[in-house]
Amino acid sequence: MRARITWGAAIAALATLAACAKQEQAKPAAGAAAAAPTVVTIHAKDFAYVAPDSIAAGWVTFHLINDGPDLHHATIFRLDSGKTATDLEAALKTPGPIPMWAVALGGPNAPAPGQSFDATVSLTPGNYLMVCFVDIPGGVPHFVKGMVHPFTVTPSTVATAAPVPDDSIALQDYGFVFSKPLTTGHHEFAVTNIAQQPHEMEIVKLAPGKTAEDVVAWIQKPVGPPPGDPIGGAAFQAPGTTEYLSVDFTAGNYLFICFVPDAKDGKPHFMHGMMHTETLN
């Protein structure tokens, strides 16, 4: 698997993109502090979301609770050019790349059943759709089974601020760029896709004695207990987007992995080396 790298150019691009993302939101009146992100709770089950139909614009923290026996995540798509959820649902059923008018902003990646995970993204007014691409078990993406939820983002007069990160991670073709060594404890990560194609980041705490290869083998044939506990992470992100993750690390071995199909050959990105293990003491 690919070793961790910390290229200065990648970190500079990460900082620039994160700053631009913050500037997209309305500025508060002089002397007024911006509010914290709006918190929206999503309940995920087999195979549907329970979530609001309308959300106010600004920075929004999606709190995903996995109520189902299977893994689920929530990729948030902004639909441009007057497109609707019906248009994207139809496009997803057709082989080929996701249309340019559907912008994947990220969202909370898959926590283990019974667990939750938080991810914060910037929403502007318009039409949106949350989608689950997880295909375990059976190899059929959950959106095919109806796991989609359209919602509308309405204008807001309240300015909200992005979380203040203490660490940054960049997604590139094909790897993860960490701005500094990872440590145990609570972290707020800014995660930016600096690549030329979409990526995601799922974090798995490996079971004792298990490896990244064990996780890959189990995903391809999910028989018996999983070789690790999925924590969550950054769901499917388009190039140039930034989201923020709240993560708590305890001591142990962790896997960072991307399952997005490659734009050129269709292979999941971990087959191109986009997986990384980290040991935290």
Give your account of this protein's structure.
With 281 residues, the chain is mainly β. It has a single domain, classed as Immunoglobulin-like (Sandwich). The protein has helices at 8-23, 85-92, 212-220; strands spanning 38-45, 48-50, 54-56, 58-66, 75-79, 102-106, 116-123, 126-131, 148-154, 167-172, 175-178, 185-193, 199-206, 228-237, 242-249, 252-257, 275-280. Strands 2-1-4-7-15-12-10-11 form an eight-stranded mixed β-sheet, with helices on one face. The model is unreliable at 1-28 (pLDDT under 50).
Summarize the SSE layout with pairings:
Layout (H helix, E strand, L loop, with lengths): L7 H16 L14 E8 L2 E3 L3 E3 L1 E9 L8 E5 L5 H8 L9 E5 L9 E8 L2 E6 L16 E7 L12 E6 L2 E4 L6 E9 L5 E8 L5 H9 L7 E10 L4 E8 L2 E6 L17 E6 L1
Provide a compact summary of the structure:
This protein is mainly β.
